[in-house]
Amino acid sequence: MRVHDWGRRARLIGAAALLAGAATVARAETVLKVVPYTDLQILDPIVSTSGMTAVHAFMIYDTLFSWDASNRAQPQMVGSHGISSDGLVHRLTLREGLAFHDGRPVKPTDVVASLRRWMIRDTLGQRLGSRLAAIEAEGDRTIVIRLKEPYGWVALSLGSSGGNPPVIMRAEEAATDPAKPVTETIGSGPFVFARSEWMQGSRVVYRKNVAYVPRTEPPSNMAGGKAVKVDRVDWIIMPDEQTSISALIAGEVDVVNVPPPDLVPALKKNSDIVVAPLAPDYIALMRPNHLHPPFNNPKARQALALMVDQQDYLSAAFGGLGKPCYSFFTCVGSLPATAGSEPYQKPDPAKARQLMADAGYKGEKIVQIGVSDIFFHNAIAQVTIEKLRSIGVNVDPQLASAGVMQARRAKKDPPAAGGYNLFQTSLDTITLSSPLTNIAAGTDCDGKNWPGWPCDEEASKLQAQYINATDDAEQRRILEALNQRLWEVIPYVILAQFERPSAWRKNIVGLLRANFPVSWNVEKRG
Fold this sequence. Notes:
Strand order of the largest sheet: 8-9-10-1-11-19-12
Shape: globular
CATH class of the largest domain: Alpha Beta
Number of domains: 3
CATH architecture of the largest domain: Roll
Strand content: 15-25%
Radius of gyration: 25 Å
C-alpha cells in the first residue's frame, strides 16, 4: 500500500473516531443515583412486606388501581370500571398498550392469577377474597369480579400500597406457591430490573422501560402518569450514613432517601442540597408475639406499653422529628382516636414490672429481634433493650439485617427454636390510618394476619363493623370503640410518630411525595 493511502486511512479512522465520540456523548445515559435506606434482599412483594421489596415492586410492576394523594383509588392499569346495580359484579377493562417487559401483552389471565396469589397473603386481599364468589378472565382485556355481598372497598383494595401490594405478574410467575418467592422478575411497570447488574450489598440497577405507556393524568402519590425521565436508576448501597452524606455533598450521588437526623441541620445549610419530607409520617412500633409466653398474656403486653416513654424514642432515633401518638390509627389530622390510651400516656416502670410478674414471667430469656443495618431501627432496638432491662426482663437481643429479620419474624416457632418474643419496625401512617388497611391492628383468629398474630374476636368484630359502615358518624363511633379495645388487648405498642425527611441535590427536580420513594417524574438537570 502506498504511503498516501496509509495517511488517508489514518485520517478516515480519526474522523470516524471523532464521530463515534460525538455520538457517544449524544447517547450518554441519564443516571439517577439514589442511596436507599437499606439493601434490597427480597424480590417478591407477595412473600414479604419489606419496605424495600415494595419500592422494588413499584419500580417494575403495575397495579390495577393506585392511591392518590387523598388516599382515593384511581385507575392505573384499568381503563374502565363498571359496577352492577346490586354492587355484586365489577367489570374491569384493562387500558390499551399494556405489555410485560418481554413484549407479551398483559392479559386478564395474568391479572386473575396475580390477584388469587395476593388474596392468600395480604390483609386487604384476604378481606376481598372472603367476599369473593368468582374472579374470571373475559376476552382479551376484561376481568369480572363477582362478590357474595356488596363491598365498597374493591378499587381501594386493588390499589393498595401497604402490606403486600397487588402487583400484576405474568400468569406463570403468579402460579408460584404464595409462600415461595418467584424466580423471575418480569413486570409491566415503568422500569425494568437489570438483574444481571444487581450486586447485593452494593448496587441495584433499573432501566427505563421504553415501551411503557404512562397514563395522561398528573402524578399524585402512587397514582397518575408514571412518566420516566431518566434512562436508568442506580440504587447505591451505603450502610455508613456519613459516607452517603459525603457522597451527596460531593455530587457522587443524587438522592439520599433517609439521611441521619443528626446531620439534617447541616444539610439544610448547604445551598446545593434540598431537605424535605417525600414520604408520609411513620409510626415506630414494638410487636409482641402473641403465640408464646409471656406475651400471649395481655398483662405482659400492657407491661410493654407502660414501660415506654415515646420521647425517649423520638430523641434517640429520630432527632426529635416527630411527636408522641396514642392512637392505633395514627395522629395525622386534628382528631386522632385516643380512647383507651389514658393509662399509657405516662410511663410507669414499677407497674410494668408487677404486670410482668402477674403474667407469670419468672426471668425467662426474652428473644428480641430487630434490624441492625437501618440506623433508626437499630436505635429503637437499643432503647427497647434498655427499657426491658429496667423492668426486670432478661432480654436476649438478636439483631440482624433487614432481610434476615423479615424472614425470621414470619416464623411461628417458639423462641428457643428459632422464633422470637418481640420485634420493632415502622409502618407508614397511610397504611395504619384506617381499620381497613392497618395490617398491624388486624386481630382475626385464623393465624393469617401480620406476624405477631394477635387474636381478639371483639376487636375483629369492630373492624368488620367499621368496614361495613357507610355513615361517617357511625364509622367514627366504631373507630373510638375499636381504639379502646385495642388498648386493652395491645396488638402492638406505639413508640412514636416520626418524620422521615429525604435529601437531594438541587438539580434533581420532580421528586414526588408518595407512600414509597418513586423515580418516575424525576429529571436530572445539568
